[in-house]
Amino acid sequence: MSSTTKQKAVSREELLKRAKEIGELAEKYAMQTDEDRRLPEEVIQKLKESDFHLLHRPKAYGGQDLDFETFGDIIRTVAYHSVSAAWATYFVIIHETWPSFIPKDARDAMFNSNELMADVFAPVGKVEDADDGEGYLVSGQWNFCSGVLWSDWIALGAFHKMKDGDKPELSLFIVRKEDIEVIDNWDTMGLRGTGSNAVKLDKNYVAPEYVFPLGRVVEGATAPDGNYEEDYLLFNVPYIAYFLSGFSQILVGGLKRLVDEFVERTQNRVRVYNNNSQEKDNSSAQRTLGEIKMEYNTLEKIADDYLARMQGYAEKGVRVLEEEERQELFAMRGYVAKHAPLIATRLLTVLGGNALYRESGAERFVRDIIAVSCHPTHLYEDAMVGYGKTIVGQDGHPMW
């Protein structure tokens, strides 16, 4: 794809149709995915054919400034069928935004390759200045590299004093997959289909134009060579808040599947140990239905509100948030992340013994929802402490 190629915007209806097709295909292979610890190639190919990776690129590179409501609904639609596939879908979209913040030559090379991208924000790498006086030598091992099995560009986090900086700052150093070692260590309770293996490198050279200055972007920086698209969606929102917005959407989408299944089973369930009574006529089951639906609705509304705020920031061009609002968004993500697995676990126990069979799918959704909630960007305790501190005028969490 040429850097000047502009695509016609795809309708919301078509995008959600593609999302459903990805989710249904992934669900078809769910048992195999758990065994293989990765999504099958058929699902990845379907994901590539969807062109979801283009959606939040700049328009000059095929993007379309996709609205945040549709962005969230794409993720929820896939998650309703496969949480692992929703994780991959979410990352495919957001990982194609950070090249917008690097110099044009590197940006062109990455976008025009039309190869997928992966990253690990965790600043665990060691960086040295290269002898040429320009680039950097990057070493380390990063776990949780989601998408590494089907991506060719990998961005890896580290703190380092850049040549044009005055103190260590968080940046992502972009390398090619063929230049790194992929460590097959992804054997987890949930999200098994994401294939989020570790990557390792030893003094790999990274040219300065292939450094994503994340710390500077958090502070409001855009493209280092000028705003080639001043109205670019991701130049006009708080970037980290955007980047982390999809986790709640995954949780809501996966949880909705469990809630819907619980409603259906309650309507059709016969309690053989309770005089063959109809479960739908049981007052305790009716109460549970009411509670579960209200609890789910609460999480859905929080996830909706989060995306509505993102849309508002984009319309007003807000790149940096006031401290309390930044931490409130963290708290919203943390609230969903805490309560989604609690609801999911309760549903599993109330569904009864048949829900424990792997082919039923319920236990897999529960495992996956728990795994999503373990991500450090929405840990409940950190989120609430950070939000509470800002309410009394103190600084919140330094990153999220």
Number of helical segments with 4 or more residues = 13
Return the CATH class of the largest domain: Mainly Alpha
Biggest sheet features:
4 strands, mixed
> Within the largest sheet, what's the order of strands?
1-4-5-8
Overall geometry: globular
Radius of gyration: 22 Å
**How do the SSEs run, as a string of H and E?**
HHHHHHEEEEEEEEHHHEEHHHH
Strand content: 5-15%
Question: How many strand units?
Answer: 10
Compile the SSE list and pairings.
Layout: H1 12-28, H2 30-36, H3 41-50, H4 68-79, H5 83-94, H6 104-113, E1 117-120, E2 126-129, E3 136-142, E4 153-161, E5 168-176, E6 181-183, E7 198-206, E8 211-212, H7 214-218, H8 239-243, H9 246-268, E9 270-271, E10 277-278, H10 283-316, H11 323-351, H12 362-373, H13 380-391
Parallel strand pairs: 1-4
Antiparallel strand pairs: 2-3, 3-7, 4-5, 5-8, 6-7, 9-10
Helix pairs in contact: 1-3, 1-4, 4-5, 4-9, 5-9, 9-10, 9-11, 9-12, 10-11, 11-12, 11-13
Q: How does this structure look, described?
A:
This protein is of the alpha+beta class and 400 residues long. It has three domains: 12-96, Butyryl-Coa Dehydrogenase, subunit A, domain 1; 117-213, Butyryl-CoA Dehydrogenase, subunit A, domain 2, CATH 2.40.110.10; 239-392, Butyryl-CoA Dehydrogenase, subunit A, domain 3. It is built from 13 helices and ten strands. It has helices at 12-28, 30-36, 41-50, 68-79, 83-94, 104-113, 214-218, 239-243, 246-268, 283-316, 323-351, 362-373, 380-391; strands spanning 117-120, 126-129, 136-142, 153-161, 168-176, 181-183, 198-206, 211-212, 270-271, 277-278. A four-stranded mixed sheet has the order 1-4-5-8. Strands 2-3-7-6 form a four-stranded antiparallel sheet, with no helix packed on it. A two-stranded antiparallel sheet has the order 9-10. It is globular and about 80 Å long.
